[in-house]
Amino acid sequence: MKFTLLSACALLLWSSCSFNDKINAVLPIYGSREPVTKTVNGKQVTDTVYQTIPDFEFVNQYGKTINRKSLDGSIYVADFFFTSCPSICPIMHRNMLKVYETFKNAANVKILSHSIDPNHDSVPVLKNYADKLGVTGDTWWFLQGKKESTYKLAESYLVAVQEDSKAAGGFVHSGYFILIDKQKRIRGTYDGTKPEDADKLIADIKTLQNEPQSMIAQ
């Protein structure tokens, strides 16, 4: 009986530690950073300012304007694609569907898929693309806008996109999913063509949802 009781206590303690580890887990912050010195209560304090995603303005599959402010209070995932892509995009978005299904009822999680071929990917084309994937509601937005603005924004996400007549479909782009926190900071990158990376992304989104207030406030 003593052994059974001790075993149960040890299991309970291990479970508690494991749970606390998950709650207290912290993801890294990617991108450039710089120290900034300021005066707080008469004392010089050095703080770190991290790279954030700049403002943008695009239109989603419903014809609604989406900008940086539209994501205030939300954790979100971004990727770059085009609807006529014959290579990695279909694989990426099959994997992203798992993320969408997990968080489609979560008010604080969004997915942004930026078209790199806005001349073809009009609002109706994006809506048709979303419908074929089975995407409804306001969790996953397919966005289009000026090509120059989209390509410039991709640099802020630390990914590259470009036109290339020799490439399949006429474009070259990263297949990465980029995880952004509520402060618009990059917190993770995931290979969108790998199902296991989609699983890791789901786990990391949950980690951000439970992130300590001290990290959120930075």
TrEMBL record:
The keyword 4Fe-4S does not apply. Disulfide bonds join 85-89. SUPFAM superfamilies: Thioredoxin-like. Pfam families: SCO1-SenC (PF02630). The keyword Iron does not apply. GO terms for molecular function: metal ion binding. Keywords: Copper, Disulfide bond, Metal-binding, Signal. Residues 47-210 form the Thioredoxin domain. InterPro entries: SCO1/SenC, Thioredoxin-like_sf, Thioredoxin_domain. Residues 1-20 form the signal peptide. CDD domains: SCO (cd02968). Gene3D superfamilies: Glutaredoxin. Cu cation binds at residues 85, 89, 173. Belongs to the SCO1/2 family. This is Thioredoxin domain-containing protein.
